[in-house]
Amino acid sequence: MKIVPSLFVTAFMLLSINTISAQYGNSGYGGGGYGRNGYGSGRMNSGMDQNRTPDKPREVPVEETVGKVMERLKPALVLDELQEIAIANILTESIKQQGVILKQDTNQSDQMKDIQILSENTERKVVELLNDDQKEKYKVFKEESKNPKKSKRNR
């Protein structure tokens, strides 16, 4: 009969020792007791690291994106100022609509279809503003954008 109580006492002592050793160094608050300086500063550092990491990537402003596209498009098509302003407005509206589509709560295939339709409409509006010579240059520009050639620097 004394065996059962002694088993309970032994089990209790083993569990207590395991808990104490976890708090004082083995896997508790750091390698040597309570953190590096003895008072748990290791835990505070992990909380500070979480504040440094951004929750989501920084969104690039629409105007910046349109500006980069127009920097490449204007010399390639030899656009006048009126065409440049009109095309920039069309691209700005298109990018804003893409953002709205991507934020909708629909499945990915529907979003891709909506973005494809938006892209076709945007292209149609841009082509309407171009003359015949610019339309040919625009086709070449689009093909080069799809299949960019490697420059000598990238080799």
Concise synopsis of the structure shown:
The protein is mainly α.
Polypeptide structure, described:
The chain has 155 residues and is mainly α. The chain has 2 domains: 3-52, no CATH class; 62-146. Helices cover 70% and strands 0% of the residues. The chain contains 6 helices and no strands. The protein has helices at residues 3-23, 41-52, 62-77, 81-103, 108-128, 132-146. Helix 3 (62-77) crosses helix 4 and helix 4 packs antiparallel against helix 5 (108-128). The protein is rod-shaped, with a radius of gyration of 32 Å. The chain starts with a helix and ends in a 9-residue tail after the last helix. The model has no long low-confidence stretch (mean pLDDT 78).
Strand and helix order: HHHHHH
Share of residues in helices: 55-70%
Structural class: mainly alpha
Q: What is the percentage of strand-forming residues?
A: under 5%
Q: How much is the radius of gyration in Å?
A: 32 Å
Overall average pLDDT: 78
The major pleated sheet works out as: none
Uncertain spans, ≥5 residues at pLDDT below 50? none
Global shape: rod-shaped
Q: Find the count of extended strands (DSSP E, 2+ residues).
A: 0
Structural domain tally: 2
